Amino acid sequence: MTTKNLKNDEFYTPAKTIIDELKYYGYDGLFRDKTIYLPCDFDATLPYIKKEIKKVEWECLGTKLYQDVEIYKVMPDLFTEEEKFHGPRNCQFVSYLTEHKDDFGIKDIYISGYDALTAKGLKFQEAPFKCFDIIITNPPFSQMDEWINKIIDFKNNGGQFIFLAPLSILTNTYAFDYFKNKDFWCGYTEPSQYEDCDGNPIKSYLPSVWLTNFNVEKHKRKRPLTKSWKDHPDEFLPYWNYKGIDVKSIDDIPYDYIGVMGVPATFLKDLHPDQFEIVGWSQGKEQLNTLSGMIDWEKNGYTTDMIRLNNTGGMYKKCKGTGGVASSKIVLYNTLELKHPYKCPFCKLLIKNKAVSYTHLTLPTKLEV
What we know:
Helix content is 16%, strand content 22%. The chain has helices at residues 15-26, 81-85, 92-99, 101-104, 144-156, 173-180, 285-288, 323-327, and strands at 35-38, 49-60, 63-74, 108-111, 134-137, 160-166, 185-186, 208-212, 244-246, 260-264, 276-281, 306-308, 316-318, 333-335, 341-343, 348-353. Helix 5 links the parallel strand 5 (134-137) and strand 6.
């Protein structure tokens, strides 16, 4: 619903975007007998809401506290026919779920009562998520880290969720561990547009993904692999500072490679957890230090005074002492020649094919300079 560094922080999710995604869960019966909370859907003019006061248990410094929290229950019987199909633009989640409340077997629907334009009401950070079974929303992108902290806590207490996030989350080091630990994964569709308050498409807005911890059927399908690493080893460059190979395209993932492969991060959109294991991430010093396959040339006594800045050729940076080698501990490097490593141009997801038995991967252990 929101994005960073823009004066107008209100962006609305088109009805089609919501329908295209939520229909998969609703018609599969995943909402049946569940209470759904929409923490970012509210319009003070709605005639079909009922204010409720819930006494919520909070914990502070080991002491249990109780606080009255105002939330709003959607009352479908109070909808007019026009409201059912033409709800306020910032309440499209309410409109769709209420319209299909009986079809999906939803028990109850609640909204937050927070008005982003006036900053009055219950913010998602303060909302009693544990009072509900399912959270569905388009959270403020500018507060995504806070949102993830909140939703993961909800998930750890047995809750389920579906929410929108910017596509850039696929290359976010903060979010990576949640993908790896299977706290959430991508949904079915990839929205590309939002609307302003007048219903006009915001064409410049970045694409998004749905994230969820519900079962997503497309991830269970096995990805067909047609390329052989043994037949085309020269198409898969080995990393200079890690025991693995670089795969340029998801469509090029080889079916016969026994080690770790670096694939584009967009692989997460169509993940196959039964077929592949997520090993790591190709950037971030702390994350790379946890990988057992890192090659520390500096430790082996080798240095290089030339590091290629990019893979466009001919561009070099003079480094003093082991500066070039030290920088290789932060990101992965490719190489055509061992003495001229260059930074891997894109963030890569490190995976292994579970169907191929792993044996020792032979890589260079001596840098020839």
